[in-house]
Design brief:
251 residues, alpha/beta, Rossmann fold, 7-stranded mixed sheet, 19% strand, disordered N terminus, binds S-adenosylmethionine
């Protein structure tokens, strides 16, 4: 890789904050305990045990792979070395309110040979970062768990540089009434019983389903992002709106 390419990438993505990292560990209960001062009726729904079970993992790692591939660099942990990560033309900060979550993520990153990641314990509603620092802020299945969503959006805006991009992946609402009926049947009648059978935990799965229904729909969330100051806000539905990606720029 030439230095020019690296420079380009550095200019594009020198600093990225990851408000939460998919960690897929058994520590969700710890997280709830640690975060008890922030608990509301829905805060405990962060126990997305289906994520834990699926072990799909690590959006931050996928992002790093994407950056590496985009600049023609090596993918991390290639077949020959397993711990290559020769080049990491990124500067990523992973921030989560739970130390346990961070620990698991850190261990996984080390095991897979990822470097150049900063691990910071902090609250999305009061980020421990200075203003205008990051080029990109992304939050995945996290903002639904935050008590004050407006405050988290305002913090995202504050820490982004002018021109920086906010990106959020979150469960959303299925608009088509027939599909929604099917989805509701599955959500309320299948997910909690499955949670009971697989994890011995009906309640968390029931809460998960309910918290998803309570979260603002696509248009309302878009308006909240705009109210935080972001411009060019748009969203893309995935799987008929089961999840949506919202994005906006600090201009
Ligand atoms: C469902 S997990 C999602 C984790 C990861 N982003 C993923 O995609 O799998 C929600 C995460 O949000 C974190 N969290 C909840 N409230 C938070 C807050 N106020 N500030 C920062 N992180 C928070 C939890 O500790 C947990 O790691």
């Amino acid at each position: 890789m030439t230095s020019t390419v690296i420079q380009n990438v550095i200019r594009c993505v020198p600093r990225i904050t990851w408000s939460t990292l998919r960690q897929c560990s058994s520590s969700s209960r710890h997280a709830r305990e640690e975060n008890s001062s922030h608990k509301t009726t829905h805060f405990g729904y962060e126990t997305v045990s289906e994520d834990e079970k699926a072990e799909r993992g690590d959006i931050v790692f996928r992002f790093i792979q994407h950056v590496n591939q985009s600049v023609g660099g090596s993918t991390v942990a290639d077949d020959t070395t397993q711990h290559s990560s020769h080049i990491h033309p990124y500067d990523i900060t992973v921030c989560d309110i739970s130390e346990n979550m961070l620990k698991v993520g850190q261990q996984r990153a080390e095991a897979q040979g990822y470097q150049g990641i900063h691990w910071v314990c902090g609250d999305a509603q009061d980020l421990p970062f200075e203003d205008d620092l990051f080029d990109c802020y992304t939050i995945v299945f996290g903002i639904r768990n935050v008590v004050d969503v407006e405050q988290a959006l305002s913090e995202a805006y504050r820490v982004l540089k002018p021109g920086g991009r906010f990106m959020c992946l979150e469960f959303s609402q299925v608009k088509n009434s027939s599909l929604r009926w099917v989805y509701d049947q599955y959500s309320f009648n299948v997910i909690p019983p499955l949670g009971q059978v697989i994890a011995g935990d009906w309640k968390s799965y029931q809460y998960l389903v309910e918290s998803i229904r309570r979260f603002p729909d696509q248009e309302s969330f878009k308006e909240m992002i705009e109210a935080a100051g972001f411009r060019c806000v748009k969203y893309e539905n995935l799987t008929f709106g089961v999840v949506a990606i919202h994005s906006g720029f600090k201009i």
